[in-house]
Amino acid sequence: MQQRREVLKQSLAVAGLLGATGLFPQFAWAAFNKSAFEAKTIADAVKAYGGAAPVESKSVTLTAPDIAENGAVVPMAAASTLPNVKHLLVLVEKNPNALVAKFDVTDAIEANVATRAKMGQTSDVYAVAITSDGKAHYAKKEVKVTLGGCGG
């Protein structure tokens, strides 16, 4: 039992040193695209990932509830049948920051993802597929958020 506690103490000490020197956060945030997650509009978020102006497409599907009784956890799913999809984005238009989630997709996996998002108010939700040639295709759906989960 003493060995386990010593290992935990040493691990915490190493993590603290890495955090204090700034080395740990550098690697932890390496893939974080700050401009995309701070984007206020759908177009700005898509542009931050190299996509052109998004065009509505039947090859992209968005699954979300018509009415979300709890805006803190709204389930959403995005899928695409387009070839060469590079990124799948889930965006909420009226959130303070539009980008909710970004998924990197390769030819080795199916472009089909699911997540949960926080929504402060009724808004259009977008699923955007960005292909390797920079084209952006989207599907959208309005999700109504009720106050207090009472359906009104």
From TrEMBL:
<dbReference type="InterPro" id="IPR032711">
    <property type="entry name" value="SoxY"/>
</dbReference>
<feature type="domain" description="Ig-like SoxY">
    <location>
        <begin position="48"/>
        <end position="150"/>
    </location>
</feature>
<protein>
    <submittedName>
        <fullName>Thiosulfate oxidation carrier protein SoxY</fullName>
    </submittedName>
</protein>
<dbReference type="InterPro" id="IPR016568">
    <property type="entry name" value="Sulphur_oxidation_SoxY"/>
</dbReference>
<dbReference type="InterPro" id="IPR006311">
    <property type="entry name" value="TAT_signal"/>
</dbReference>
<dbReference type="Pfam" id="PF13501">
    <property type="entry name" value="SoxY"/>
</dbReference>
<dbReference type="InterPro" id="IPR038162">
    <property type="entry name" value="SoxY_sf"/>
</dbReference>
